[in-house]
């Protein structure tokens, strides 16, 4: 096996595949990077058994400057190999495997020889046989992930809540996540109807890694779902993830249908106020910020205190305030995550009582995106 390739383009593809490789795996060969060379292309594969990423570099793509002298395959120690390639002195790198499973890496005046393993021992990729494909704009899918993955649970005691629940039916995709303290739900219209209904739970960790691979302005993400795997196709890169097994809780009943008090304000300016208040709340044991609405028209007040440090109060000008006066306490970190997902938009926050969950929605699109937060009882 022998090929020569542009080092910086090769490094970018290595970085993608490394996202799937963990040093903590119980299968030793999965700490390695599988490389398969054919006369037309080089295929890189990395996996931790939960996530598998495969990417292809072809001789036809001038960006890679790829020339193949001899086909073959090998598994190389991923982190070590990647660090070597990044630090090589020349723009071109040549990788050659001759006798056994030793790879020689040369670039300019530098030359490394590292030990590899037989690629035949590397686990096979999952089979995704469905032809039903859902296509979404890359920036839209990245936005959906960012708006929902914030609410997944980090507690392994309820593994089902560590994923985002996707329901695809007809022309609608709905993504929802909850950790039982907060909830995030986003709906989007698909460009065309799909033949089959899908109801799957994708691990939040997988979606976070996928989101990092979707570059701004990237064109399309293709989604294919099988029995226990999901495949995302981003150009020449294939991203596989296992699905979580089990039934996701019925979340629609958690969202209140009516409210006693509503306030409309700008998400980014409210976020700045919450960030200032949380400087003190983080110093106290309970990490709570209080929001007071009314009786003054269109004026809300944020307050927080830490017995050891002091207290904070800030008035916030709302564009609209309707309903009964209210005092409600909440975790400011949950509020900050929710507000960041709205960007610069105007939002409406709806409350039913001081002890019931409240909702945040963008005023221009109230039906398709909702964040819900459970308040904190302070007495």
TrEMBL record:
Keyword DNA-binding annotated: yes
Pfam families: DNA_pol3_beta (PF00712), DNA_pol3_beta_2 (PF02767), DNA_pol3_beta_3 (PF02768)
Major location (coarse): cytoplasm
Function of the molecule: Confers DNA tethering and processivity to DNA polymerases and other proteins. Acts as a clamp, forming a ring around DNA (a reaction catalyzed by the clamp-loading complex) which diffuses in an ATP-independent manner freely and bidirectionally along dsDNA. Initially characterized for its ability to contact the catalytic subunit of DNA polymerase III (Pol III), a complex, multichain enzyme responsible for most of the replicative synthesis in bacteria; Pol III exhibits 3'-5' exonuclease proofreading activity.
Domain DNA polymerase III beta sliding clamp central: 136-250
GO molecular function, one term: 3'-5' exonuclease activity
Cellular component terms per the entry's GO annotation: cytoplasm; DNA polymerase III complex
UniProt KW keywords: Cytoplasm, DNA replication, DNA-binding, DNA-directed DNA polymerase, Nucleotidyltransferase, Transferase
Any one GO biological process: DNA strand elongation involved in DNA replication
Record note on quaternary structure: Forms a ring-shaped head-to-tail homodimer around DNA.
InterPro entries linked: DNA_clamp_sf, DNA_polIII_beta, DNA_polIII_beta_C, DNA_polIII_beta_cen, DNA_polIII_beta_N
Chain ranges of the DNA polymerase III beta sliding clamp N-terminal domain: 1-126
Residue intervals of the DNA polymerase III beta sliding clamp C-terminal domain: 253-376
Protein name per the record: Beta sliding clamp
SMART domains recorded: POL3Bc
Family of the protein in this entry: Belongs to the beta sliding clamp family.
Compartments where found: Cytoplasm
């Amino acid at each position: 096996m022998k090929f020569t390739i542009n080092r910086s383009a090769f490094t970018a593809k290595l970085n993608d595949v490394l996202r799937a490789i963990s040093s903590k795996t119980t299968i030793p060969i999965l700490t390695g990077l599988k490389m398969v060379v054919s006369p037309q292309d080089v295929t890189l594969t990395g996996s931790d058994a939960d996530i598998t990423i495969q990417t292809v570099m072809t001789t036809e793509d001038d960006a890679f400057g790829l020339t193949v002298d001899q086909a073959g395959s090998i598994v190389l120690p991923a982190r070590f190999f990647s660090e070597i390639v990044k630090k090589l002195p020349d723009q071109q790198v040549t990788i050659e495997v001759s006798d056994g499973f030793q790879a020689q890496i040369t670039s300019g005046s530098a030359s490394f020889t590292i030990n590899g393993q037989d690629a035949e021992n590397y686990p096979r990729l999952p089979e995704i046989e469905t032809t039903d494909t859902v296509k979404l704009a890359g920036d839209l899918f990245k936005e959906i992930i960012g708006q929902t993955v914030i609410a997944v649970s980090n507690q392994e005691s309820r593994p089902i809540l560590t994923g985002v629940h996707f329901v695809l039916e007809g022309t609608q995709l709905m993504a929802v996540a909850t950790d039982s303290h907060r909830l995030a739900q986003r709906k989007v219209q698909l460009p065309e109807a799909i033949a089959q209904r899908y109801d799957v739970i994708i691990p939040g960790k997988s979606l976070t890694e996928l989101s990092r691979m979707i570059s701004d302005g990237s064109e399309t993400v293709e989604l294919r779902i099988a029995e226990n795997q999901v495949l995302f196709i981003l150009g020449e890169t294939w991203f596989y993830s296992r699905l979580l097994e089990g039934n996701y809780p019925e979340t629609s009943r958690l969202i209140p249908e009516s409210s006693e008090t509503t306030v409309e304000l700008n998400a980014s300016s409210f976020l700045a106020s919450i960030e200032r208040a949380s400087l003190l709340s983080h110093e106290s044991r309970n990490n709570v910020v209080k929001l007071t609405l009314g009786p003054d028209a269109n004026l809300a007040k944020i307050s927080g205190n830490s017995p050891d440090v002091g207290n904070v109060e800030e008035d916030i000008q709302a564009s609209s305030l309707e309903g009964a006066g209210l005092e409600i306490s909440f975790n400011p970190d949950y509020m900050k995550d929710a507000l960041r997902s709205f960007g610069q938009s105007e939002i409406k926050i709806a409350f039913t009582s001081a002890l019931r969950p409240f909702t945040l929605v963008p005023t221009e699109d109230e039906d398709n995106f909702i964040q819900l937060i459970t308040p904190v009882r302070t007495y």
